[in-house]
Specification:
Layout: H1 2-13, H2 26-29, E1 30-44, E2 47-58, E3 77-83, E4 89-95, H3 98-102, H4 106-109, E5 114-125, E6 129-136, E7 142-150, E8 167-172, E9 181-188, H5 195-209, E10 222-228, H6 267-274, E11 281-286, E12 293-296, E13 300-304, H7 310-323, H8 378-404, H9 409-435, E14 443-449, E15 452-460, H10 475-487
Parallel strand pairs: 9-10, 9-11, 11-13
Antiparallel strand pairs: 1-2, 1-5, 3-4, 3-6, 6-7, 8-10, 12-13, 14-15
Helix pairs in contact: 8-9
Length: about 500
């Protein structure tokens, strides 16, 4: 591992960073194709190794040809691509990964190694490039992780035509792919007989997406395309409930050991499906009635199609995967340990450790006269939240036990209906509490965020990134999303 990092460090230090405002010229360094680099990410909490898998040339480049260097400094990893001849940085992008989440879990901390398949996309270079990956340490500074030279003309670069067995749906056209945000919505757990349901669900979720600002007033900034590779079975895996399905993209509940967390480890299948359309972002729509989803920055997001919270799931998880927004909640169980190290400022735009209150990252949005940090009715909220979490956990455990024990379908359905009713009642109660607060609508710094009750702060009392329901992004989150949207414009 040390030898690998030393090699990468030499490579990266040799690179040349463009001067501010001096962006690389697309036509000088790239052709209008996408280079897809697949690799394996291996290790545990204190060990990290990357090995290349395969390189592909696939389709047009969906991203901006003007904004090639990532300005956001968000994400625990960075792809950086250097022109091999000059050493000039010609492309970069921050992201998070499934492995990055795994290494914060208990098993990773105990030294259990896992392997995850990942993908980096960038415009296809005209000449050889040095492909590099960087990772943030606990102090949030970027450090070298991996480097390799890639020749886009090499005979080992895969140019195989895409498999024809996919249904592609043009759901919403806003503009040219190079100047729009191109979203691929991949269906999982839809059988061939459910293709019409996939089309209807896709139209429904596009409509849901455009109910929220900053998307609502900028419909022509987005393209939505659906891709369906039919699954053998309907639905997805629910391991803790004893349910297993043959779904094409491998979406599964119980990701990282958390029952409601739904991700997929079948990255190759996901990327092979998405390659049928130009895309900047991947949404995986899972044919399921149960509450579940997940979002990983510049990686993908998942959401279930038919739960009562379907709109919240889509918009909340997209906030993670598209704009790198942090979870602002802190009372729900998570799979992570020490996700945000104490005493270090997070890179996400919507939470802060408030190490320097005089230079709050959203200081220009603070409501005049609002104290920083901002007092609020936290003890009362925490008590209400704890009671709701306890009841939900107990009922979820009863459902899982009943399903594993082979209870009748009617008995299981009654338990599920009770869980949905309980979820709605608890959410309504929490919404009423937050709406009645003397601090509702103010921008300040409210303690409790990023899975931590103490030491991390969010901008507003409530937000789509804080609690369930049909509600807007807070002012800081909405601004952060808009800035990312603008990065894809030409």
């Amino acid at each position: 591992m040390r030898a690998l990092i030393a090699f990468a460090a030499v490579a990266i230090l040799a690179g040349v960073i463009p001067a501010a405002g001096d962006a690389p010229d697309f036509n000088t360094y790239f052709v209008d194709e996408t280079l897809r680099v697949d690799y394996y990410h291996v290790g545990h909490a204190t060990e990290e190794l990357v090995t290349l898998d395969k390189v592909y040339r696939q389709g047009i480049w969906a991203g901006s040809r003007k904004h090639l260097i990532d300005p956001f400094n968000t994400g625990n990893y960075y792809v950086k691509v250097y022109d091999a001849a000059s050493g000039l940085l010609i492309y970069s992008k921050g992201f998070d990964s499934y492995f990055g989440e795994y290494k914060t879990t208990g098993p990773a901390g105990e030294g259990v190694r896992r392997t995850y398949h990942e993908t980096a996309l960038f415009p296809c270079p005209r000449q050889k490039v040095r492909f590099t990956l960087e990772v943030r340490g606990r102090d949030r500074t970027l450090r070298p992780l991996f480097a390799a030279e890639i020749d886009p003309a090499a005979v080992t670069v895969d140019r195989t035509p895409l498999a024809a067995a996919a249904i592609v749906v043009e759901a919403h056209t806003g503009g040219d792919p190079h100047g729009s945000v191109d979203i691929a919505v991949l269906g999982d757990g839809y059988t061939a007989a459910e293709a019409d349901k996939f089309r209807a669900d896709l139209r429904r979720f596009v409509d849901v997406f455009f109910t929220l600002e900053p998307y609502k007033s900028r419909r022509d900034w987005f393209n939505f395309r659906g891709v369906l590779r039919p699954s053998a079975d309907s639905g997805c895996d629910e391991p803790s409930r004893g349910v297993w399905r043959r779904n094409a993209l491998g979406a599964s509940f119980d990701s990282l050991g958390l029952d409601r967390y739904m991700l997929t480890e079948e990255n190759r299948a996901v990327r092979d499906a998405a390659a049928h359309v130009p895309y900047d972002a991947i949404l995986i729509m899972v044919n399921q009635t149960r509450y579940g989803g997940g979002g990983i920055y510049n990686f993908f997001c998942t959401f279930t199609s038919d739960n009562q919270w379907h709109a919240y799931l889509l918009l909340h998880e997209f906030g993670h995967s598209f704009a790198g927004l942090a979870d602002e909640y802190y009372t729900s169980a998570v799979a992570y340990n020490d996700f945000y190290p104490a005493g270090v400022e997070p890179t996400e735009p919507n939470i802060t450790a408030l190490l320097d209150p005089q230079h709050l990252k959203w200081a220009d949005c603070v409501t005049p006269g609002t104290a920083v940090p901002t007092p609020w009715e936290k003890a009362e909220y925490d008590a209400l939240a704890a009671a709701g979490q306890k009841a939900r956990g107990e009922l979820d455990a009863r459902i899982a036990q009943a399903m594993r024990d082979g209870a009748t379908a009617d008995a299981v359905e009654r338990l599920k209906a009770e869980a949905e009713r309980q979820s709605k009642e608890h959410t309504d109660k929490m919404d009423a509490f937050l709406t009645a607060s003397a601090f509702a609508g103010q921008v300040g710094a409210f303690e409790g965020a990023g899975y931590s009750s103490r030491g991390l702060y969010r901008p507003m009392l409530d937000c789509l990134m804080f609690s369930k329901g049909n509600k807007p992004y807070c002012k800081v989150c909405e601004r952060a999303v808009l800035r990312v949207m603008e990065h894809y414009r030409e």
